[in-house]
Amino acid sequence: MTELDAFITGLPKAELHLHIEGSLEPELMVALARRNRLTLPFASVEEVRAAYNFSKLQDFLDIYYAGADVLRTAEDFRDLATAYFDRAAADGVVHAEIFFDPQTHTDRGIPMAEVVEGLFAGMAEAEAQHGLTSKLILCFLRHLDEDAAFATLKAAEPWLDRIAGVGLDSSELGHPPSKFARVFARAGEMGLMRVAHAGEEGPADYVREALDLLHIDRLDHGNRSLDDPELVARLAAEQMVLTVCPLSNVKLCVVGDIADHPIDAMLAAGLKATINSDDPAYFGGYVADNYRAVATGRGLDRAALKQLARNSITGSFLSDAEQAPLLAKLDAYA
After folding, report:
1. Average pLDDT of the chain?
2. Distance CA 258, CA 297 (A)
3. N or C: which end of the chain has fewer CB within 10 A?
């Protein structure tokens, strides 16, 4: 391990853009299929890995949803979460705010309780074993309709005291944020934080809709914001947190190569950007891998890496009092 690798690995950081279903590694997928007596359309772990070769977002989503089918019981979801948190802790993550897609599971007949109770068990285990705190964010699938989102929010009510917020993910093009304005308004009335994927494949106007119609507290991705200087100025002035996912951006052809990634341009423009892994099992890297990619691909120095880590902590939904010891740990380290 090089000196830079070691610095990045040990850098105390938060992860704010992680789809827990997207951390399903092929080995665990095969193991869960065996445990649940399911037949996968792949003969081996190697065949699963070979299938992780996409040219666009929809190609990825097709296999993502197929892989999620092995998740059936609370034990499965606990094992999924535990596997992610073990990797995150090894990457220097001190706090994580993870997305989950309940509709992916309830539409298959899996009770909401199996999903959330399994995830909560994994989260509790991570805090006990690693001291890694976490929050859970319920995401609505934007290719489904608003009524389905309202039904999902209703079904989650027994656990909303332990769910930090709602989000919006899945296929972006053709499904603007405005489609979900009313359900996001309801979530806000219920005291939930609000985040949304916007400006990944969709245009800068989708980012505006997320700001003005969904009243988001954090912007997921946001790359296309850079197409609009006025929007960039607004995001900088409002200190809106962007949860940027470099390796995902390359894998899904949002950018052509990591050498072309705009993360340093974002920082230079005053944007409160953070580094995250998105769906690491599918995109070839967990959070420290993403830090290394931009450090080498864009020549980011330690000061910039520390700023990204600081942004991740201050951009979390932790209270100021909860952030303080994590920021002190970051300052002591860096």
Report:
1. 95
2. 6
3. N
Mean of the pLDDT values across residues 139-161? 97
Q: By the 8 A CB rule, do 150 and 189 touch?
A: no
Residue 269 pLDDT more than 70? yes
Please give the structure tokens belonging to residue 17: 């853009």
Residue 138: count other Cβ atoms within 10 Å of its Cβ.
26
| Four-CA torsion 60, 282, 112, 75, nearest 10 degrees | 150
pLDDT (tens digit per residue) in 222-248 = 999 999 999 999 999 999 999 999 999
Q: Is 238 a catalytic residue?
A: no
- Cα torsion 232, 8, 281, 35 to 10°: value is -140
Q: Which residue in the list 200, 201, 209, 230 is annotated as catalytic?
A: 200
Pairing of strands 93-100, 133-141: parallel
pTM: 0.96
Residue 55 pLDDT level (bands cut at 50, 70, 90): low
pLDDT at 54: 67
CA terminus-to-terminus distance, the chain: 18
CA 134-138-139 angle, to 5 degrees, is 125
Residues 6+ apart with CB under 8 A from 223: 199, 200, 244, 249, 254, 255, 262
Helix (H, G, I), strand (E, B) or coil at 198: strand
Burial state string for 177-198 with b = 16 or more CB within 10 A and e = fewer than 16: bebbbebbeebbeeebbbbbbb
The pairing of strands 165-169 and 93-100 is unpaired
Measured at the CA of 286, the angle between CA 120 and CA 5, to 5 degrees, comes to 130
Between strands 272-275 and 13-19, the pairing is unpaired
Q: What is the DSSP string of 255-314?
A: SS-GGG--HHHHHHTT-EEEE--BSHHHHT--HHHHHHHHHHHS---HHHHHHHHHHHHH
